[in-house]
């Protein structure tokens, strides 16, 4: 059974439809990517999942059951804007939040210390949030979201504003949580994170679902349109090959755009006839390209 | 309930630990201590304790009738009788001329404050008098004293032998005016004719001011707290952790305890100041007798304070949840502040006339009733059923408002951007259960 299931969920603000019939399923131990341009309805969807706002139509089921207040204890949420008291000590507020979600003071304290150790910042225990840098505030926000060991974790732009080292750290943590069976709903603008973390994604564009499914399947559905080629010598006449729409000369080798997959073989033959080939690859479309195409197309 | 306790203790601890709370409380204690010790300080700075004996020289030739009378002048017995030994006395001493060596010596030693001379004799009564002193000033008390004395002598001179000295003194004795309240229902004149002891007025004053201060201070605290939680988006996490109703009441109660503690600290500092040895006579000086205190007012005052506090605190919380930025808060709070002012000033200005129709009406209207009722119970005439009805109305309103405020809170904390219109709030409120 899915840990989280959305069925044709609709949310309207006045005349404006914020989310138009989104359906998705997140299994246990899965990271689900929610992508979309700004204002596409990601945060609204997440808020509905959290029970902060109610959907105007459709159903949201948690382990097959509808929302109830008890569910709040098994959910963790990291909002896009941090959501911590600036003037309160880290320990005070995180233990407070954990206790509100049903933990005992002792367990909350232990869990907080564990997480501070995990992020290598035990000295923040007695610091106020406003004394920390933005990135570190975000780590504290993350701890606040996971301190009570939630089954469903909702991360809204969890990695924005972090340096690469911390992004790695947080990514590893998220993967660990996934391996422990946490279901994670994850939104971001950074496609490489999605490709690395998520099995399934939904791309939203102005409240509508435009692309949905397993990332590999989605990629298969998009034509392969690029060929990377590196040879020992210079090549000429690449642009004369039928099916090649553009040739880009790069520092080492070429990047060719093709309009049909057959052209790839013709390019390889042409290159092999001309000399030694060092590298040849028919590139998969990146999620970035898919995103731009999906969102771009529906905008036209 | 467990969550409620967590929220209350978190709110309380965080508020009490803030610098602003510590500083405000310290300043209040300091002001109270200074204010209550001012009479003592004045005494200390004047450098005398107890009676002040002033010697005034009277320079006149032999046979000056006015000077003779002045030298034998004694202040009216009535004034001196009910004052204690601390009364200042003025002694007159005769000198033949201003060049008298003994007078000069006395002025130099500061044994004699100054001396009086009489101008050439006028037509009748006391001729114009001039006061000579080193600093050329005549202090107010002394001037009053001299004026009184000379006035009486003037009368004596003009009336001559037609009146005895006692008759003249009697003329200057103040006429006493007593008061007696008439019983309107005519059934028990004796019981109502004793006027309310002054101590009750003082207590009502203190309660009014404490209530007003407490409401404005804690109310603003609550509103600011809610708005800042909203603007820092921590609200989104809080609401997903505990129900909005629990959230709001937890905060309101937490801050209520903060306010209560502040009042306790203030009361304690008043009590300690009263117990200081040099302030022992402060109550009797002002004619206050704790034994005359109407203790009912303290009990009712506390009940009214608690209910009134919740009524206002919930309004502040509701308004705080509507605005998204602390900068907008002041403006949005204006209507609530107005209510507080009205509730405070109606009884404050009616303290000397606590039985007007205005106060009677105000003591039943929930917004104004907590304070107006305190006034009526303390110094006015009020029947028990009136208190009961007023309390029931207040209680019902507080519950109703609590429900409404929770709705506004639940709705408001998730509305961002511009201040929502009343229509928008109403529409959104229908969508959420509490």
Topology:
The complex is a heterodimer of chains A (300) and B (434).
Chain A: E1 4-13, E2 16-26, E3 31-36, H1 42-50, E4 57-62, E5 75-78, H2 90-100, H3 105-118, H4 134-146, E6 152-156, H5 164-179, E7 183-187, H6 191-197, E8 200-205, E9 208-214, H7 215-221, E10 226-231, E11 244-249, E12 254-258, H8 262-274, E13 277-283, H9 287-299
Parallel strand pairs in A: 3-7, 3-8, 5-6, 6-7
Antiparallel strand pairs in A: 1-2, 1-4, 8-9, 10-12, 10-13, 11-12
Helix pairs in contact in A: 2-3
Chain B: H1 2-17, H2 19-46, E1 53-59, H3 65-71, H4 77-81, E2 89-95, H5 101-108, E3 114-118, E4 129-133, H6 140-159, H7 165-172, H8 189-192, H9 198-231, H10 234-239, H11 244-275, H12 282-285, H13 295-322, H14 326-349, H15 357-362, H16 369-379, H17 384-412, H18 422-431
Parallel strand pairs in B: 1-2, 1-3
Antiparallel strand pairs in B: 3-4
Helix pairs in contact in B: 1-11, 2-11, 3-6, 9-11, 9-13, 9-14, 9-16, 11-13, 13-14, 13-16, 13-17, 14-16, 16-17, 17-18
Describe the structure.
- The complex is a heterodimer of chains A (300) and B (434).
- Chain A is of the alpha/beta class and 300 residues long.
- Chain A has two domains: 4-219, P-loop containing nucleotide triphosphate hydrolases (Rossmann fold), CATH 3.40.50.300; 223-284, Alpha-Beta Plaits.
- Helices cover 34% and strands 28% of the residues of chain A.
- Chain A has nine helices and 13 strands.
- In chain A, strands 5-6-7-3-8-9 form a six-stranded mixed sheet, sandwiched between helices. A four-stranded antiparallel sheet of chain A has the order 11-12-10-13, with helices on one face.
- The longest helix of chain A is centred in the middle third of the chain and has 16 residues, at 164-179.
- The mean pLDDT of chain A is 86.
- Chain B folds into two domains: 2-39 and 195-431, no CATH class; 53-172, D-Maltodextrin-Binding Protein, domain 2 (3-Layer(aba) Sandwich), CATH 3.40.190.
- Chain B has helices at 2-17, 19-46, 65-71, 77-81, 101-108, 140-159, 165-172, 189-192, 198-231, 234-239, 244-275, 282-285, 295-322, 326-349, 357-362, 369-379, 384-412, 422-431, and strands spanning 53-59, 89-95, 114-118, 129-133.
- In chain B, strands 2-1-3-4 form a four-stranded mixed sheet, sandwiched between helices.
- In chain B, α9 (198-231) packs antiparallel against α16 and α13 (295-322) runs parallel beside α17 (384-412).
- The interface between A and B is medium-sized, with 27 and 23 residues.
